[in-house]
Amino acid sequence: MNGRMLSKNEVKYIQSLKAKKQRLEANAFVVEGHKTVLELLAHQRWIVQALYGTETFLQTIPKNLTLPAKTVTISQEDLERISFLQTPQSCLAVVALPAAASAHFPANNWSLLLDDIQDPGNLGTIIRIADWFGIEHIFATEHTADVYNPKVIQASMGGFLRVQMHYGPCAVWLQQQQPVCYIADMHGHNVWQLQQPQPGVLVIGNEGNGVSEHIAAFATQTISIPKLGAAESLNAGVATGILLSHLLQTTSKA
Amino acid sequence: MNGRMLSKNEVKYIQSLKAKKQRLEANAFVVEGHKTVLELLAHQRWIVQALYGTETFLQTIPKNLTLPAKTVTISQEDLERISFLQTPQSCLAVVALPAAASAHFPANNWSLLLDDIQDPGNLGTIIRIADWFGIEHIFATEHTADVYNPKVIQASMGGFLRVQMHYGPCAVWLQQQQPVCYIADMHGHNVWQLQQPQPGVLVIGNEGNGVSEHIAAFATQTISIPKLGAAESLNAGVATGILLSHLLQTTSKA
Fold first, then answer.
1. Keywords, A to Z (chains A, B) (predicted)?
2. How does residue A43 score in pLDDT terms, banded at 50, 70 and 90?
3. Would you say B164 and B138 are in contact if contact means Cβ atoms under 8 Å apart?
4. Is B102 part of the contact surface with chain A (CB cutoff 8 Å)?
């Protein structure tokens, strides 16, 4: 552990990890926040390449956690230079991107499939919802926002630690594995009246265009949230939460 | 209708309306977005003090709508100078703050009560949810984010036009009117198992601290969303959507 000033190049490198292209090239992403960083250190699945923390933060790390070889004590001012947050916290970790796992729809639990969710805040919120409801797998089309985008990491409130994202050819996966498939659709069946759904995958579409046709083709059923008022739509995160809660309510009772 | 450059003072005045103090002093707030501005012009309830629009926008306004005396054709560049949006649209309206209406909990419909919701994005999302479900009244403590904050207006997606906000002494209103009162609480009764709720007011608390004690004291029942996973909490907007959907499902069936 050493206390020192950050070099210009170090600051530049960390800042560059805001961009997906740079994250892929460096094979690394950034995590901030006291609680989430401690969880990272506790899980063997994650390789922390560098840990930057204020003296106060580093002193609070429980003794049973192994610190990465590169652990750097920095001042609050230096932390502000590398942080992506408006209100920087007391630490920042540079973490290796985990290897992609093979994409299998779970047989007896719900999962989510995101068809081009664009907004990082929405993706983060959806991961947080999945984490709340014990959904372990989220499948996503290649054009969906990247989970390692700092805004997604932040909005997921640590959810990215427990919920696994699978990016890839979702239509091919649906074709090959044929899971029970519920498609969120403004004109779908009222989710309040759904009779005995089977655990399957809930598909949420793009914020503007909804679910694309080549994915909607795999619907076991389309579902919607009853609209009693005048709004044109609900936020994608809110809609995911509402649909998932009703689906889980019914299958948890069964 | 006249086409002209904006004066520095005009730009400064509009920009000042970002702050609540200035909005109260000027008795005005700002609305942006093609669709919402057209809706504003169509509703007599709103007094548009000034309308700034590009030539293209102003030409698309239906003939049956009355334009305000101060309607100004401006260039896209000038619009960017006054806009609060990252991606300015084609128009901006300065609108008079409506007079406060008296605060009565509706007898046969659901309403919401927000106890110090701080984040403008969350408030906007909640107004959008209310608008979707046909909830007409939201009561809010004085420290709740201001509905006329540009971020709230934007996130509400036009919802502020139809959902009425009532700011004031919520505990006093609850005391005097004694509505059926459901309090969102992490340790509350599972909303999936609620038996025959009566339409009433759903109370959502502050993002960090939940519902304050002097308001929780009026609970007919506390309710929660079952947590099946590991997340610490849900986003306030998402939680509102889920709870409201389950409450409405039950009372709409009855």
1. Methyltransferase, Transferase
2. confident
3. yes
4. no
Whether residue A159 and residue B242 make contact (CB cut-off 8 A), yes or no, is no
At which residue do the structure tokens 């920042």 appear? A92
pLDDT at B45: 86
Q: Does A97 touch chain B (CB under 8 A)?
A: no
Instruction: Residue A152: list chain B partners with CB under 8 A.
Output: none
Nearest to A111 by CA among A20, A188, A187, A177: A177
The amino acid at A126: I
* pLDDT score recorded for residue B128: 98
- Contact of B130 with chain A, judged by CB distance below 8 Å, is answered with yes
Instruction: State ipTM.
Output: 0.94
Q: What are the φ and ψ backbone dihedral angles of B212, each rounded to 5 degrees?
A: -75, 155
Residue B231 at interface with chain A, using a CB cutoff of 8 Å? yes
Domains, chain B, in order of start with CATH, read: 2-96 (3.30.1330.30), 111-253 (3.40.1280.10)
The token duo for B6 is: 């904006």
**How confident is residue B44, by pLDDT bands cut at 50, 70 and 90?**
confident
CA atoms of B50 and B33, how far apart (whole Å): 14
What tens digit of pLDDT does each residue of B73-84 get? 999 999 999 999
A chain contacts of residue B252, beta-carbon cutoff 8 Å: 192, 226, 228
% pLDDT > 70, chain B: 98
**What does the block give as tokens for B160?**
């502020």
**DSSP 8-class letter at A202:** E
Nearest to A135 by CA among A44, A59, A243: A243
- Decide if A246 and B245 are in contact by the 8 Å CB cutoff: yes
B189 at interface of A, judged by CB pairs closer than 8 A: no
